[in-house]
Amino acid sequence: QVTLVESGGGSVQAGGSLKLSCAASGFIFSSCGMGWYRQAPPKARESVSFISSSAITTYADSVKGRFTISRDNAKNTLYLQLNSLKIEDTAIYYCAASCRSHVYWGQGTQVTVSS
């Protein structure tokens, strides 16, 4: 059974930092590309960052230079370091695993940034 469990969300003031984690199980973590997405209703879900199985990273323009994605294959865990947070970063953050033709999603963790 594939599970992705996000943690580390919370409430923080603008300019602050958070570190999100995504614990994965039920699949070969090291073989899959992993990504972070976010959704702030009523907006559509958007891609935040992605890290391939070979650790190549990409970022949305809105988070470049502020967020850092990383993975620990020994711990089957994906991370997202969020720095210099802005009010517009408020959203539910989801992790996802892209494994060949399958995509798996976590349940999300709320990040709220206040002024």
Describe the structure in your own words:
This protein is mostly beta strands and 115 residues long. It is 0% helix and 56% strand. The chain has strands spanning 3-7, 10-13, 18-25, 33-39, 46-51, 57-59, 67-72, 77-82, 91-99, 102-105, 109-114. The strands form 2 sheets. Strands 2, 4, 5, 6, 9, 10 and 11 form a 7-stranded mixed β-sheet that branches.
Structure in a nutshell:
This protein has 115 residues and is mostly beta strands. It has strands at 3-7, 10-13, 18-25, 33-39, 46-51, 57-59, 67-72, 77-82, 91-99, 102-105, 109-114. Helices cover 0% and strands 56% of the residues.
Helix and strand run: EEEEEEEEEEE
CA-based gyration radius: 13 Å
Instruction: Name the beta content range.
Output: over 45%
Q: Helix fraction?
A: under 10%
The pLDDT mean sits at 97
Q: What's the main sheet like?
A: 7 strands, mixed
Gross geometry: globular
State the main characteristics.
115 residues, mainly beta, seven-stranded mixed sheet, four-stranded antiparallel sheet, globular
Topology:
Blueprint (H helix, E strand, L loop, with lengths): L2 E5 L2 E4 L4 E8 L7 E7 L6 E6 L5 E3 L7 E6 L4 E6 L8 E9 L2 E4 L3 E6 L1
Parallel strand pairs: 2-11
Antiparallel strand pairs: 1-3, 3-8, 4-5, 4-9, 5-6, 7-8, 9-10, 9-11
